[in-house]
Amino acid sequence: MVTNAVRHASARGLQIRMAQADGLLRIEVVDDGVGGADPARGSGLAGVERRLAAFDGILAVSSPPGGGPTIVVMEVPCR
Q: Using 50, 70 and 90 to split pLDDT, how confident is the model at 6?
């Protein structure tokens, strides 16, 4: 996530938040890049999505093209 934000989105700022509650690990990555991240258009986010699915996890991406911010949320059950 961090490499993609710098390399592809020209992000200058990035925040990572992690929390565990109610048997769920939630990781949120927010950057101030140009937006337009789409798991369907490349192998990076799609690969993360596949790996999370193996653990019944999910990936959610909000990344408006041309104006970010990009918000990527990963959730994985952990009991």
A: low
Regarding pTM above 0.90, the answer is: no
Distance between CA atoms of residues 35 and 43, nearest Å:
17
Residue 12 buriedness (CB in 10 A; 0-12 / 13-18 / 19+): exposed
For 18-45, give one letter per residue: b (16+ CB within 10 A) or e. eeeeeeeebbebbbbbbbebebeeeeeb
| 39 DSSP assignment | G
Instruction: Look up residue 75 and give its two tokens.
Output: 């959730």
More confident site: 42 or 64: 64
Q: In this predicted model, which residue has the larger pLDDT, 13 or 43?
A: 13
Alpha helices in the chain (DSSP H): 2-7, 43-53
Q: Sign of dihedral through CA atoms 38, 39, 45, 49? A: positive
